[in-house]
Structures are given as structure tokens and as C-alpha cells.
Amino acid sequence: MLGFLIFALAFVTLLTLVVRLGQLRVRRELPETKSLGLTVAFVALLLAAWWFVTHGATVEQRILPPLILPSPLEVLQAFPALHFQQGLVRSAGISFLRVTAGFALATIVAVPLGVYMATFPPIAAFFRPLALIGAYVPIVVFVPLTLAWFGLSETQKVGFLFIGCFVALLPLVIKDISDVPAAYLDVAVTKGATQWQLVRHVLFPVAQANIWDHLRGVYGVGWGWIILAEVVNAERGLGYLIDISNRRGHTNAIFAVIIVIVLIAIACDQLWRLGGRVLFPFVNRE
How many domains does the chain have? Predict the structure, then answer.
């Protein structure tokens, strides 16, 4: 515990010194090339530190043993076995379908419900407990609950991902609709808009760009929960591969699967970003 405290204080102190000594300007625009260069520098520094603490011909010569942290080369060497012996690509495809199914179901329910809760106070009062669940109930408690409800089945995994995405998405949609300025509604009312037209032609169109960005974020949340969804009697999927590798003590395989999850999540995030630029070109995006 003391070690974590010392690390946290040292990190914050060092970061503050960089900000002060570098004379950084508040919210100053950064050129794209410089921004990319800083990102690459961080990744390079991380890889160098990783190599340094795992470098050595024998376990005794290494700062950290392979069981705790494998070297980058050892992680790369885990990919052929994962692919040819354990069906890495097939497991990635299965996990993708599970995350997408759970997320799609959550979107179908959470977006209309969030719009109505932010628009009509009686609906908000009736369904308020659902919004509180996401704020105060840890998502991990739904693992044993979904097992009790659906058993060791595919429905349990998709159902857990649905709940995880739903409780994350609902309050975000409510906030997006609530943030629409009242002036838009006032103008529409003066022009004779009905209550339904206020929802369909004013509230949702104004908020839909922000809702899209939050859909993008929640889809990433689904990839964060895939390990929990597949850790129990999955028999296939990336979470299953991590569980099997952990039982066998193959830490390098665990890191390899984590890298696959991160790469898939990044690729999907970029597709979401591209979709947002196509659908909402009028929105300024970084």
C-alpha cells in the first residue's frame, strides 16, 4: 500500500513539474503532427520500459520474472499457439458477435427510454430506479445474477453485456436530451409543433450527434466487460482464452489476448469516429 502511495505522489509531482517547467498553455491547440509524435513517444517509452524490466537470458537476470510480466518477444511468440491450437481468430469473432449483440439490444431499449425519461417527467419518475442502478450498483454483481436467470448459456453472456451497456448508456442519453436548450422548444411551440413533434423533430435531432458519441463510448465499455461475460463456462471467446491461459500459467498468452482486445476496440472506435464524421459533418471533432 505504501509503495502505491509513493508511486502516485511521485507521478503527480513529476507531471506537475512537466506542466510548470514546460510552460504549457491552457487548452492551446496542438498541431496534429506534434500530437501524434507525443503519442508515439509515450508508446515507445512504454515499450522500452517493458523491455528493460523483462530483459535477460535467465529468470535471475530479469527484474520481473515471466510469470509476472513476460517480455514483448515472449508475448509475440504466444500468438502462433493461440491461433493454431486455440482458435484465436474464431474466438475473436465470437466475442465480437457477443459484444455487438448485447450492445445492440441495449441501444434499442436505452435510447428511446432515455429520450422519454428526459422529456416526460412521469416517465422519468417511474423509471428512475433504472438510472440509479448504473450509478450505485457494480456491474460485476450481475454475473451471478445472470447465471441464475439464464444458466450457463449463450443468453447469459449476451444478457450480461446487455445489462452492462444499458446501465452505462441510459444516463448518458438522458443527459444529452436534457442539455438541449429550451429555446429550441420555445421556437417550435410558437410555430405550432405538437408534443410528439417536439420529441421527433427538435429534441432528438439536436442531441443525436452527442448520443452517437456516447454510443461509441459505450460500445467500448462492452469490450471492457467481455472478460467477465466469458469467464464462466464460455468454451470459446477471448475471455475464455484468458481464463484457460491463466489456469495454465501462460501469462504471455494472457497479454497476447489483451492486445487483441485492445486492437479490436481501437479499430471499432475509429469506425465509430468515421461514421460520426459522415453522419454529422457539421459537428467540430478532434
Answer: 1
